[in-house]
């Protein structure tokens, strides 16, 4: 694999694999959205992870900060939700992304923004602490949501309180920054959330360090995961 280093992001080596070269192929609208957002070549973690998640495999990914993990899970998530045979009903949650902090959750939501147009039938919602939960609960009851992005604390609370949300058809769960999720003490909420999700789903776990706790979480939440390990090049 030829690697081109971008000095502003020391860990972001680009491969010579284009998003349009990946197999199974990504859909045309998603490829167009990637190009419009300025993404043409994959980073190593993207080239390795996207085909796996797109072909029904669970993945446990260990790659340094800055290696491009966000698109490594957003691209397959968008592709998988796009493939759904019929549009979800308003309260059917099809995708769930758990991230350790309010800031990181908002960042993911912002990176995902240009791709929401590829999913006109999917309503995304950002769910983080800091503001009162009542507003989130009322809004979700009234309007529903098909993709939840947020912190485990707020997402668990919402699952407890909004009975109309239906997770039975969930396609994909992403645990981003799994090492930090556990450092911040979210183990219990994550386990409770996973208990309420269907077993037949895809799960991606992303981490910058491989700890014993991450390994435990991977055992509890993933099915025969493929390990993807990308070490920063010297
Ligand atoms: P990580 O989650 O692994 O820390 P990010 O997903 O936040 O890394 O990506 C780090 C930076 O690399 C971001 O600025 C992002 O826009 C950029 N980036 C990611 N993938 C690509 C790509 N395929 N081409 C160009 N830049 C990319
Ligand atoms: Mg990240």
UniProtKB/TrEMBL annotation:
- Tell me the domain of life: Eukaryota
Full protein: residues contained: 1 to 234 of 594
What is the recorded name of this protein?
ATP-dependent RNA helicase
User: Where are the coiled-coil regions?
Assistant: none
What does the similarity note say? Belongs to the DEAD box helicase family.
**The species this protein was found in:** Stephania cephalantha
Sum up the protein's function in the record's words: RNA helicase.
Q: Lineage of the native species? A: Eukaryota, Viridiplantae, Streptophyta, Embryophyta, Tracheophyta
Q: Which residues form the Helicase ATP-binding domain?
A: 50-228
Q: What's the domain remark here?
A: The Q motif is unique to and characteristic of the DEAD box family of RNA helicases and controls ATP binding and hydrolysis.
